[in-house]
Amino acid sequence: MFELEVKNMKYKLSIISIILLIGLTACAGQNSGSADISSVSTIAPTQVLEQTPEAIMEPTQELDPAIEPTLNATQIALAWDWGYSTPEEQGMDSAVLADMLEEISQTYPSIKSVTVIRNENIVLDAYVHPYSKNNPFQINSIVKSIMSILFGIAIDQGYIESVDQPLTDFFPAESMDNFDYRKEAITLEHLLTMTPGLDCRDSYMFNWDWSDPQWREIDDWVQYFIDLPMVSFPGTRFAYCNSDARVLSVILTRATGMTAQGFANKYLFGSMGLKVNDWNTFQGAYTDGARGIRIKSVDLARVGQLVLNDGVWEGERIVSEEWLTQSTQPYIDGNQEDHYGYLWWLNESGFYAGIGYGGQYMYVVPWADLVVVFMSSNGSDSVNIPPHLLWQYIFKSIVSKEALDHNPEQYQRMLNAVDDLTR
Fold first, then answer.
1. What element of type H or E holds 312?
2. What is the 8-class DSSP label of residue 392?
3. pLDDT tens-digit map of 268-292
4. Could you tell me which residues are beta bridge partners of residue 376?
5. Which residues face 332 on adjacent strands?
6. pTM, rounded to two decimals
């Protein structure tokens, strides 16, 4: 399906015993501008590795103490339970990442943070003033991808039989208006793939025909959704719909006796040493399965790393590998990426993403052992910026499967660019 031939390769890394922590200082100011990002490169990511000159594949240069990158007091004070690493230790080019940060500073004020994890090491964790590492962001539709993981756990735990369970197991046919035989064919898989065939207009695809105030004013919004008329047979038509994910949250609650938030804190976040206390609700009882979690960028990156690790976190199985494989298969053509899985956007180049309104992205890239999180300010103009930065800088910074020669000058330049963003 996807060619992920790099996924299982063991990286032979030369580990330096210095933990370099990225600093954040508080000041003010940022530049704005514009750039053409319509011609984002479509070079296959695996080709980036192949373009690296042989001469830089083996690290030979010793670090010169006279030009060793310096750390300020703020950087020393910060801590992280994963290791910090220079990009070169992980086969990445500091100069390219520094170029990216400088372009963000000069051109893209909507970008608020970028976190890059490779080989379970923090390579870059940068924030734009006034944001910092300790600030949670409210994520939008990335929450849907988290809901996908929760459904896998619920099936693993036996709360839900399978994705083939019909919607009528949870909402009896006799309780639905506009009922026809096609509603009996709707399964959980159709909700997970946004293909139930209901006339849902709760998304950008329909210019938000259902505004939030409108559906919040409905006394029984869930009933309103399942009463919608059918416009296609289930599984044949992709129509991105926030309501699908919200109904999935209701189903999770009916199956487990817990809200999606409570279930996540017990089986997902809790198992990773995290806890989410701030998650939107609707109708006073249900967790919003479509959006509304407040979470730190680095903690969201943990979720991406869990998926990259095939469902294992620090030796503990949290969700089955089978579910993650199943949920990241292409079930139908998408429009923000090439295909759509179970609440995941899939790219034919071999990676997948949770994507939220306003330019929020959680990328999981198995062929490069890479997780990337972008947070942006809300706005439709932000949606194409992270893909541009991913292709033009982060992928191009990956030049080797092994550690590169030390490059302290460019690494210090990258650290300086991080500091500049916080001022």
1. strand 312-313
2. I
3. 999 999 999 999 998 878 999 999 9
4. 111
5. 340
6. 0.81
Selected residue with higher pLDDT from 37 and 192: 192
Architecture of domain 141-356: 3-Layer(aba) Sandwich (3.40)
**What's the rounded Cα separation, in Å, for the pair 242 and 285?**
17
| Sign of the C-alpha dihedral computed for residues 20, 22, 26 and 28 taken in this order | positive
Cα 11 to chain centroid distance, Å, stands at: 23
Which of the two residues, 43 and 166, has the higher pLDDT score?
166
Percent of the chain with pLDDT over 70: 76
| Stretch(es) of the chain classified as CATH 3.40.710.10 | 141-356
* Length of the chain as a residue count: 423
Q: From residue 157, give the alpha-carbon distance in Å to each of 182, 220, 262, 268, 367.
A: 30, 30, 15, 12, 29
Tokens encoding 74 = 């703020």
User: In the structure encoding, which two tokens stand for residue 152, read together?
Assistant: 């896998």
What residues have CB less than 8 Å from 193, skipping those under 6 apart?
235, 238, 331, 332, 340, 341, 342
Mean pLDDT of 339-358: 96
Cis peptide before 130 (omega within 30 of 0): yes
